[in-house]
Design brief:
3-stranded mixed β-sheet, about 15% strand, about 190 residues, two-stranded antiparallel ribbon, alpha+beta, 6 helices, single chain
Length: about 190
């Protein structure tokens, strides 16, 4: 399997995730406050290598000044601070944001300590004491799919040693990542 097939699988997962979020928003729009300017969830997180690669490709496709601005913010980002892509309450790489950023705030279904749970941003669904399972994103299934695509990416495309996850800042300032089909540069010079 080549990198384009794997990237297509990842893009398909993003599209399905966005579709699911739109469906929830349509059905529960009066209960969801997520919008541009609300950045409560926008903390400095880490992502899988497949997500890092897609985000790096997106930054490399930006005009030079915009890409340099993101790299500068990445170099000064604090590990426990706000996401380095956050500026004026908006994401500088919104269309290429990772899965977790797409689902933040929405109800997520998961199992914890053997019990089914639904969690949601405290600003959303105020006054709602429970939600049906079909109203939530199945976090376990989503993470399993993302993990599988990431493993395919690593086993089929990456030839250099690789860390398990990248912080958002590391995506734009870390060492090169060599792919089987091309050299995908993740170096400090951009």
């Amino acid at each position: 399997m080549d990198i384009s097939q794997i990237l297509n699988n990842y893009q398909h997962l993003l599209a399905k995730t966005d579709e699911r979020c739109r469906e929830i928003l349509k059905n529960y729009s009066g209960h969801i406050r997520c919008k541009k300017g609300c950045a409560m969830c926008c903390c400095h997180i880490s992502v899988f290598p497949i997500e890092a690669a897609v985000m790096r490709l997106a930054v490399n496709a930006l005009p030079e000044a915009a890409a340099d601005h993101i790299r500068k913010k990445a170099r000064t980002a604090l590990p426990q601070g706000a996401c380095p892509l956050l500026e004026d309450g908006a994401c500088l790489l919104y269309d290429s944001r990772p899965i977790i950023c797409r689902t933040h705030g929405f109800p997520i279904f998961f199992i914890q300590d053997g019990k089914q749970r639904i969690d949601v941003c405290p600003l959303n669904f105020e006054g709602v004491s429970s939600l049906p399972g079909h109203a939530a994103i199945d976090l376990e299934r989503l993470n399993q799919t993302l993990s599988l695509i990431n493993r395919m990416f690593i086993s089929n495309c990456v030839t250099s040693p690789l860390q398990e996850r990248f912080t958002i800042a590391e995506i734009f300032i870390c060492e090169p990542l060599t792919l089987n089909t091309s050299h995908f540069s993740l170096n400090k010079d951009g």
